[in-house]
Amino acid sequence: MTEIRLERVDAANREACREFAEFVGANYQGAVPLTPEAVASGSVRYFWAIQEGRRVGGTGYIARTATLAETVKTVVDPAFRGRGLGAAISQAIEDEVKRAGFTKAMTTIYIDNYAMILIKLKQGYRFEGFHPDHERPGWHEYSFGKVLG
Ligand SMILES: CC(C)(COP(=O)(O)OP(=O)(O)OC[C@H]1O[C@@H](n2cnc3c(N)ncnc32)[C@H](O)[C@@H]1OP(=O)(O)O)[C@@H](O)C(=O)NCCC(=O)NCCS
């Protein structure tokens, strides 16, 4: 699979937080836009996805409990989509979560995001729920989870 390295976004660095929030905002139309302040709060660990020295995407996770991590904002730069990077970054953040000691990963995905749903199912995630009007009215999501072996 495509070699991906994750590089932590420094929550203490204002410019780094602005840059990451701008990247996500430009390339992922979510119900709740990511702000530099949210990145700086440090409650979510965000990462740049690096391939051959280039930033090709972003990802992150939040600790929901001591053992459960929710992965968020897995985004591929549009210039690099359709060549397996979405799957590779999804795998990289799962590996990161596992390395950090979590025993389960979960994520929520908008119901029409077939690419991401497909990626998670192929990586062994199971459907765990339907969340209508979840982050905002009209924005429906599924949740998928995987117990990490
Ligand atoms: C979702 C996203 C990460 C996928 O990235 P990508 O690099 O294009 O994905 P991949 O190349 O790894 O493709 C993964 C699979 O999805 C399929 N796929 C890609 N686009 C698709 C589409 N529009 N509809 C259906 N399937 C699609 C691919 O064919 C591939 O399946 P395969 O393994 O059977 O060939 C990318 O489109 C993106 O950044 N979207 C905006 C952010 C986003 O929605 N993130 C998810 C948050 S939950």
Unreliable stretches covering 5 or more consecutive residues:
none
CATH-assigned homologous superfamily: Gcn5-related N-acetyltransferase (GNAT)
Beta content comes to: 25-35%
Q: Assign the CATH architecture.
A: 3-Layer(aba) Sandwich
Q: How are the strands of the biggest sheet laid out side by side?
A: 1-2-3-4-5-7-6
Q: How helical, in percent, are the residues?
A: 25-40%
Q: What does it look like?
A:
The chain has about 150 residues and is α+β, with helices and mostly antiparallel strands. It has a single domain, classed as Aminopeptidase. About 30% of the residues lie in helices and about 35% in strands. A 7-stranded mixed sheet has the order 1-2-3-4-5-7-6, with helices on both faces. The mean pLDDT is about 95. Coenzyme A binds near residues 76, 85 and 118.
Characteristics:
149 residues, single chain, Aminopeptidase, alpha+beta, binds coenzyme A, seven-stranded mixed β-sheet
Secondary structure topology:
Layout: E1 5-8, H1 14-27, H2 36-41, E2 45-51, E3 54-63, E4 68-76, H3 85-99, E5 104-110, H4 114-122, E6 126-131, E7 141-147
Parallel strand pairs: 4-5
Antiparallel strand pairs: 1-2, 2-3, 3-4, 5-7, 6-7
The protein binds coenzyme A.
